[in-house]
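Students often ask why inverse folding is considered easier than folding. One informal answer: many sequences map to the same fold, so there is more than one right answer. In these notes we will look at a single instance of the problem. The structure comes first.
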C-alpha cells in the first residue's frame, strides 16, 4: 500500500483567527495551510474545472476565512469558506500534497495572477 493511503491525519486544527488550518499526520509531518491558499487550491469542479485545462485562477481571496470544517467519511474534510465556497472535498492525501508542494504551488499561483492582471485583494 502506498504512503498516501496509509498516512492519516492525527490532528486538524483551525486557528482562532480562522485564517489557517494546521494539519498533522501520523508520520510526523505537519503543515500550516493558509485559508487563502486552501481556497485558491480548492479541488472543486468550480475551481479546477472538469477537464485538464478547464481550471480558473481564483483572485481576491487574501482575506477569506474558514467558516467551518465538516468531516466526509474517513477520507476527507469539506472546508466551508466565508465567501460561500463549500464544494471542495480535501482528501487527506490532497492536504498532505498541498503542504508538501506549498512553495511551488504558491509561486505558480502568484505568477498566474500577475500574468492575468489579477490581484489577491
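Output (designed amino acids):
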Amino acid at each position: 500500500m502506498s504512503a498516501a493511503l496509509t498516512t492519516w491525519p492525527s490532528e486538524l486544527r483551525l486557528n482562532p483567527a480562522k485564517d489557517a488550518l494546521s494539519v498533522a499526520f501520523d508520520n510526523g509531518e505537519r503543515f500550516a495551510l493558509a485559508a487563502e491558499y486552501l481556497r485558491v487550491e480548492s479541488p472543486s469542479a468550480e475551481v479546477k474545472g472538469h477537464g485538464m485545462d478547464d481550471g480558473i485562477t481564483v483572485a481576491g481571496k487574501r482575506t477569506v476565512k474558514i467558516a467551518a470544517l465538516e468531516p466526509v467519511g474517513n477520507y476527507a474534510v469539506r472546508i466551508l469558506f466565508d465567501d460561500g465556497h463549500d464544494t471542495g472535498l480535501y482528501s487527506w492525501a490532497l492536504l498532505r500534497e498541498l503542504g508538501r508542494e506549498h512553495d511551488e504551488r504558491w509561486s505558480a499561483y502568484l505568477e498566474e495572477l500577475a500574468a492575468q492582471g489579477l490581484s489577491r485583494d
